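Checklist before submission:
- one chain only
- standard amino acids only
- sequence pasted in full

Submission:
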Amino acid sequence: MSSFLRGPRVGLLAAYAVVFVGLDTGATLFETAPGVSPWYPSAGLHFALLLLLGPLFAPVVFAASLGSGLWISTPALPLGHLLLPNLVIASAHAGAAAWLRHRLADADLLSVRTALRFCLVALVLPAVVAVLAVASYRWTGLYGADAPLASILLGWWVGDAVGILTVTPLVLLLAHRWVVPDVLNEVEASLLHVQVRSPEAVARLAVQAAAVFGTLALVFYGPLGDRFPLYLCFLPLLWVGLQDGLPRTILAVGAVNLGAAGALAHHDQPGGVLPFQLFMLAYALTGLVLGVLVTQRQRSVQLLQRAGRTLEDRIRQYTPHLLSPQAESSRAGSGQAGSGQAESGRAGSDRL
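Returned file contents:
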C-alpha cells in the first residue's frame, strides 16, 4: 500500500510544513542551554509523515530539515555542514518507516506486538541517526576533536526518541479519521475517538485534564523546590489509561512531556537534563503500552458484544418460523412417517 491515507496529499503536506515550522521554532523555547533541548518533536513529525504517506516522501523530510538548519536554527549553520547530515537523517527515517510499514501491512494495529515494534523503532532509529549524523557533522568539520561526542550522542538519542514516542502517536491519532478503510475497521476507529458527547464524558475529561496538569504543576512548582517528585506524574497517567485506553493516554503523554519540557527551560538542573529526558522517555513508553493493552481489551469486549447481538438477532429472526403452524405440521408429519416406518420394520421382523 503506497499510502495509509485517503484524500489530497497536497493539503497534508501543507499542514506538515506549517506544523513543522511551528514545532521547530517552538523547540527553541525549550532549550536548557544554547542548542540543547530535552526533546525534538520534529523527529516525531518526520516519522509520522513517512509512516502515513510512505518512504518516497523522504525528500520532503530532507528539505524541511535543511531549511530548519538554514533559517530556523540559532545560530544558522552553513549549507556545507547540513547537506550530508540531513541526507542521513531523511534516509534513516525513510528506511525505518519502510520497515515498520511492511510489518504493519497485515498486522493488528491495536495490538501489543505492534506497539512494541513501534517502541523498538522509536528507540533504535534515533540511536542510528545520532551516530551517523554526528559522524557526518564531524566529517564536515562542525564538531572539533575536543567536542564532547558522548554527551552529544546521548542527548540526541534521547531527545529524538522522546519526540517520536510523543508526537508520532499524537499525529497518527489525529489522522486516523482519514485512514483508508482496510487499515482500521469500524470498531477500531471508534475506539480511537475521544468521546465527549455527553455531559458526563465532558466532566470526566475535565477532571482527567485537571489531574494531569495539577500533578505536573505540583512536581515542578510545588513546595519541594528543586526536588522534583517525577513519579507523581505516573499516577494520573495510570488512571487515565485504565479508564479510557489509548487515545487519552496519548493526549496525556503529549501534555506532560510538553509541560515538562517547558518547565525545564525555567529551572536550573544541577544534575543536567538527562534525568528529565529519561523520565519523559519512560512516561511515553508507559502510556503507549498501557493504552494499547486497555484498548485491545475494549475492542475484544465490543466484538463479543456485537457477536452476541448478531446471535440474538438471528434467533429472533428464525424463532417465529420454527414456531409457525407450518413448521409444527411439518414436524408432526415427519414424526408420523418415522413411526410408520418403525411399525413396518417391526411387522417385517415378526414375519421373519
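Reviewer check: The two ends are 75 Å apart (CA to CA).
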